[in-house]
């Protein structure tokens, strides 16, 4: 300890969110640029030419639901309706599975409510065989790619129909066929893996690119840094998406560095292309993703995109956000709801109306309900209809070494002795 | 004395010590305002302020690395790693830095940090919320590893760990945060309020590191366990009505070899239990030590009941968990030999 | 057949396989143009091009993480970690990702990567160029761990490791890169050109993982060793003129338990040797397994000669190294019992 | 693998340095701004106000050796001579210890030739009790702080006089009294530790700040990222110095990302203050460090400084750079030699001349020689005069647990049996 009369004592700054439970939420000081105001650089421009995009916000849909400005992707009404439906289905799926967890049918669930535009619109902007390395909040990718809901639910229930044989925590989907990488419970590990996959694709002269996602909180992990470094060094054809939903369980984005700058600005630090995008504007999400994908496909290198959004619900079924943030935040949050905004746009275009929307909501709800019924035929967690006990020893290695075989036999013998059903 | 569950006991340890020593700081993901995902640090930020109890970026590397630097300054940081499964990104800072700092500076710089982390399974957490990586830490010269099995021990051991001038890994068996667990997952859950070791002094007390606890003396067989498995073993002993000596290791390193040796020399038989995967788990070290030191007293091989050598599965959790059936079978086998 | 030292044999393994399989890529710090700080990848970039053999940023996390992604794509990456002491920053990607990927995706995604890394001491490298962390990896379900002890084995095992569809940690005992080493640091260094196992086929051949090698059959005592310690043990056996059976494990996981068991049942005595720190080292697992399986054949406790439980010191390297004196004393002790 | 007629095959970019052995080195395309041209922001300006400084180069000494522009720290001739002498002594020390290693007196050595201005001028700009967390190439800090050379040499020889008891690799100095943190062989680990130390200082209301150093290659480690993130979040009073000497053993800076942007630009990514400085200009080094220190001392937060320099010699005694880079680089390198440049400045000021310089060189050479003689009285590596064998077991823990005590006894007994001298 040293004190000097001519020097002030040092102070530790500890970030603090603006609002805590009971506070009035007011986002008046969050700068929200007007829709259409942000320029769209040519896909072959050098990253240094558009640093300002890391501090702005690419927005297409204005308050009236009109698509404006250079980022308007000019999608067909069919595509717009496809994205809208994918988002609605994702929300319905979340609702139902959340409830299933509450009913004790599984151990865990995580919603993406309020963030549906990100995965859903992106699935439309990417090719079907572009490889996705998601976090746990991009179920919208699978749903938008029309992956069977029953398959997802089987995984959530860890039941007999679960392709992952009950080995993984609910929602940690994996499908090679769906170009959707096995989700990890360890945050951000997928980022360097996506870069490696993209590097491999480039080594082989393939045309498929990779995309990966993590939350703003997860950007603090070393994996984020190594992903950006390797992507920059080898100009890997990859899109690194930071979903800034402003919360990481109970910690606001200030603990990931948001008080000092944007997450898109990280891109500037690595000399790679960076964009900051209205994550609740499906058209902006689509346009930014398409732009980044085109850069990647034409060997212009990686893009880091920050999607600015808001985690409208709790972190997971284990979380209760009313303990640490203002209940008003969700409604006061200025970028609105992604489904309402796209709906408004389609209606403004004359391509949609309230009745069709209500009908669609009913349809997706029924689809989800029917899938749930089917999935539950395969069992729910903890009610006996799990995979045979000895599957536990499979897939540790390609072929089972002696020690695992021995443990397997031992387990079966002990179970038999104790009268436990093993299959 | 008060009734506490293990979370409350840990919270009380932190509270008592922070009150005594202004150099103790508590940090980790969600430990500040919210008080931790298991609530172990609840109320501490309000009481001791934001610069002594604070949330961190999600970087286990940073959490440990920063704690090492704070330790070198002279603070006594108590970082939390939210789940033991997430300790690996911070492992280099633990293994290469915290553990070796005293050695490489010949005592000039030290890292008096205590890393708290919930570990173990039994809560349907799947492979990334269930692991027991303690064996790795016991292999690293310069680290101490502690695992409590009761609220009383948790408080006393945590106080001793924080006051220790060497880095300590303090693994909290999350399955028994709320109550002891016999391994019979299908029976009603107990809580600590019915258990004598849920009786915890509100004030300061220490349980010296490196001292095991004989949970139950016995003549026929020595059982070595720690954390959740102490309770599972106790349940089996009761059910089977055998005269086993049950030893709760409490500190894995430094190990209380005297208590172990005396017991095995008396009983002639030894069973080691842990939830971690078997191969190269801490049970291997225990087994090796016991046969090295008690060879001529052993009447049967030292046996191990452990987690299988697979990742922790989600739906087959109870098939994986080293529960009463497996422990019972192992005891029968040892006693037969 | 050609004369090769261990570096050349490793280089030859990479060369032979890269020529056969266009999906093999080699990457790591300084492995590209320069050919690696130990020259193990010399000439490969010139031959196979920059996109198959390349330098990387100094990020062990990134090296392993990127390799996992390449493996998922369908490549067969062979990352190098410059020294085993520096593997910890990449440990999370190995333990939580590479090792568990097949399991958590039920076989859909795999990580067929082979991490090469020089390990062990005896070169005055101090605590950060001498470590033997193999015990940590053998505790992780889903990883294989291999340690060659001769140029012939190094090539055959490396080929098998790279062709294996699971992640393999391939530790190269750097002390014997150039020649076998008896542990008598004060005697003139030997090189592989005088040793029969320095005779290495130039073409493709495999040595199956999981198979130990009986270096020398014997009746009185079984010695289990791997890497450098195989040669130190062989020297002591020769000097002492005892009839020990020396087993070079070659693969630590999966272990060749049959060969071990058969030998110990024959000799009734067992000594385990490794350079890694003792507590929770791989020797603990070997000791535990041997006493579990050969208990009624053992005439003396299984003994361990290992590195002491301290960081690897610089100037006292030869006091730390488990050399001929210590091994000799341990043999005398076992034979006396 | 997927090919599409309308898409080019992807390509992996693998960086390649401009010159390899045998090539003519030509740095004509390296932008070197004129001395004095870079503005000096007020120490309380917001980092966003001077992003351009991350892309320029703070330079004070011009070609004629004049100190020009706003960054001129206006040091007294005595201070200038002090810095010059520290640099000269560091170089003499390096030469002598390098030779000692070649003579077999120790196992390893690392020079900092060409980079002396960084540590030496910085030691003058920092307070004596500011805590340094160096890499292995900042021996100049100790020398400039007049730390006894004999003590450093004892460490290098791992002899009886080594305070570290021979436990550490040569050059891995440590002195709490010298406010110099124990050097680690693991790259970049010191960075988050320095941030933690600085946070602790701020928590306690101390006035001491921390400074830390790593090479440009080491910035790729996760530790760098966590250091910058924590420093940004808590506004820690720390200076993070990236010594960009353009080589990391055999890998040029392109493998750390230098093709895409500067290392100073990483600061922009984190929203912290960033400077890029001519590392061979002792005055610029001093001025930038003083500026950053003042920011830290007045609670303005961390600064990341890239010092642009050139590693004039091999990485260490284990390295031969002629195998991978052009032998001409050193002489062609445009920022010259830091000692010659400061000497020229002092001469231009009329405060120095060739004779005094030659005399100083002789003095420091003699000083180093005398110290070496003294140190060698305590022994050199591998010649018996090491510390007693049982010191090996000390300092693993504060008090020795039974298993170490047992191992110690065993070792002593075995050594005795074998007739080995243990003390
Ligand atoms: C390596 C690691 N550390 C900690 C955790 C625990 N954890 C799970 S989710 C989470 C918060 C993540 O926040 P963010 O990245 O913002 O993603 P979001 O949940 O908001 O989508 C934490 C700390 C983990 N899963 N992995
Ligand atoms: C974690 C870790 N990885 C790898 C190494 C091996 N290594 C030692 S120095 C070095 C190069 C460092 O280059 P740079 O950071 O530019 O520093 P410089 O040597 O140029 O000062 C490497 C790869 C190490 N010491 N630690
Ligand atoms: Mg978030
Ligand atoms: Mg460098």
UniProtKB/TrEMBL annotation, chains A, D:
Cofactor: thiamine diphosphate
Enzyme class per UniProt: oxidoreductase
Cited CDD domains: TPP_E1_PDC_ADC_BCADC (cd02000)
EC numbers on record: 1.2.4.4
InterPro entries noted in UniProt: Alpha-ketoacid_DH_E1_comp, DH_E1, Oxoisoval_DH_suAlpha_N_dom, THDP-binding
Domain 2-oxoisovalerate dehydrogenase E1 alpha subunit N-terminal: 8-47
Basic and acidic residues: bias regions: 13-23
Keywords: Oxidoreductase, Thiamine pyrophosphate
GO aspect biological process, one term: branched-chain amino acid catabolic process
Spans annotated as Disordered: 1-23
Catalytic activity line of the entry: N(6)-[(R)-lipoyl]-L-lysyl-[protein] + 3-methyl-2-oxobutanoate + H(+) = N(6)-[(R)-S(8)-2-methylpropanoyldihydrolipoyl]-L-lysyl-[protein] + CO2
SUPFAM superfamilies referenced in this protein's UniProt entry, alphabetically: Thiamin diphosphate-binding fold (THDP-binding)
Ranges for domain Dehydrogenase E1 component: 85-380
Function, as annotated: The branched-chain alpha-keto dehydrogenase complex catalyzes the overall conversion of alpha-keto acids to acyl-CoA and CO(2). It contains multiple copies of three enzymatic components: branched-chain alpha-keto acid decarboxylase (E1), lipoamide acyltransferase (E2) and lipoamide dehydrogenase (E3).
Family: Belongs to the BCKDHA family.
Protein name in the entry: 2-oxoisovalerate dehydrogenase subunit alpha
